[in-house]
Automatic annotation (TrEMBL):
Coiled coil: none annotated. InterPro entries: LysR_HTH_N, LysR_subst-bd, WH-like_DNA-bd_sf, WH_DNA-bd_sf. The keyword DNA-binding applies. Residues 7-63 form the HTH lysR-type domain. This is LysR family transcriptional regulator. Pfam families: HTH_1, LysR_substrate.
C-alpha cells in the first residue's frame, strides 16, 4: 500500500518560504517558529531525496528541481482547498449534480445561455443533460428521474412553467419537387414522404399528416436526410432559419392556417422543493426566456 512521503502542511510551508523569501519571514506570516519551518522543509527534502531550497545568507532560493515541485505543489494545495470548500458547499445543501432532460425537437438557445451563466456560479455542481422524445420525457416525469424537463406539453400533478411558443415550419431541400411549388397545401404534403421526429413506431398524437412517415429519433439525422433531398419535415423555425438563409433548406410556402406550433414547458418532476443550485438555474432560465424573476410555477 502506498504511503505518501510528504504532507500538505510541508508543501504549504515550502511555498511560504519561497513566497516570503526566507524562513524568518515565512515564520512570521505563518505564526510558527523558524526552527519548525526549517525542520519541515528539511524533512520534506529528505523524504523526496531531492534538494528544493538552498540558503544564501538570510534568503532561501529555489533549486531547479524546486521550481518544478513548486508549480506542482501549488496545484496540490489548491486542489485540497477546493476539495474542502466543496465539502462546505455540499453541507449547506448545494446539489452535487442536476439532471436535465430536453425534448429533441425543441429549440433551446435561451436554455444554453442560462447554462453558460450557471457554469460560472455552479460551485462544483455537475450537469447531466440528456435529450429525449416526447414519450421519453413523459416517462422521466412519471419516474421523477430528473430535476428539470423541457417538454412540449405540461403534465398534471407536477409543477410546470410555460416558457415560450415555437412555430414549426415545413422545410425540404431546394432540389425537392415540393420546393418548385408556388403554394403547398395539405393535399400536397400528405402525398410526400415526411421525416417525423419521434420514437417508437408512430408519430406523436396530433401531428399525423402524411401517409408515409419515416420516424427519426434525432434532429441531426433529420437535417442530414433533408439536405440530401429525402422528404420534408416540420421543424422549429429557430433551428432551420440559418439553413434556409444559407440555401441548404427551403421553407415550403404553406397557408398560415396549417402552421404548427408547440409550447416549451419547464417541468419540475420532483415533489421535493428545489435545492439552491436548481433554484439558481431556474432563476437564470426565467431571465433568458424573458419571464418575471421569481421561482413560482404552476402546479
Amino acid at each position: 500500500m502506498y504511503r505518501p512521503k510528504s504532507t500538505v502542511e510541508q508543501w504549504r510551508i515550502f511555498q511560504a518560504v519561497v513566497d516570503q523569501g526566507g524562513y524568518a519571514q515565512a515564520a512570521e506570516v505563518l505564526n510558527k517558529s523558524q526552527s519548525s519551518l526549517n525542520h519541515a522543509v528539511a524533512k520534506l527534502q529528505q523524504g523526496l531525496g531531492v534538494p528544493l531550497l538552498e540558503v544564501r545568507g538570510r534568503k532561501a532560493y529555489l533549486t531547479p528541481e524546486g521550481e518544478v515541485f513548486l508549480r506542482r505543489s501549488r496545484k496540490l494545495t489548491q486542489d485540497i482547498k477546493e476539495l474542502e470548500s466543496l465539502a462546505d458547499i455540499l453541507a449547506s445543501g448545494w446539489e452535487p449534480v442536476l439532471r436535465l432532460v430536453v425534448e429533441a425537437s425543441l429549440p433551446r438557445q435561451p436554455f444554453y445561455q442560462a447554462l453558460a451563466d450557471f457554469s460560472k456560479r455552479s460551485r462544483g455542481c455537475r450537469i447531466h443533460l440528456l435529450e429525449a422524445q416526447p414519450a421519453g420525457c413523459k416517462a422521466v416525469v412519471a419516474k421523477q428521474a430528473a430535476d428539470m424537463v423541457f417538454a412540449s406539453r405540461a403534465f398534471s400533478g407536477v409543477t410546470s412553467l410555460a416558457l415560450t411558443t415555437t412555430v414549426y415550419v415545413p422545410v425540404c431541400a431546394p432540389s425537392h419537387p415540393l420546393a418548385t411549388l408556388d403554394e403547398v397545401g395539405t393535399h400536397e404534403l400528405e402525398a410526400e414522404l415526411e421525416l417525423v421526429l419521434a420514437e417508437g413506431n408512430e408519430p406523436e398524437a396530433g401531428w399525423e399528416g402524411t401517409t408515409q412517415p419515416w420516424i427519426i429519433n434525432h434532429l441531426h439525422d433529420t437535417l442530414s436526410l433533408l439536405r440530401r433531398g429525402v422528404g420534408f419535415a416540420w421543424l422549429p423555425h429557430e433551428v432551420v432559419a440559418p439553413l434556409i438563409e444559407a440555401d441548404s433548406l427551403t421553407r415550403l410556402p404553406v397557408a398560415s392556417q396549417i402552421l404548427r406550433k408547440r409550447f416549451t414547458h419547464l417541468i419540475l418532476p420532483r415533489t421535493t422543493p428545489l435545492g439552491p443550485a436548481a433554484s439558481l438555474l431556474l432563476t437564470l432560465i426565467r431571465h433568458h426566456y424573458g419571464l418575471p424573476d421569481d421561482n413560482r410555477a404552476d402546479a
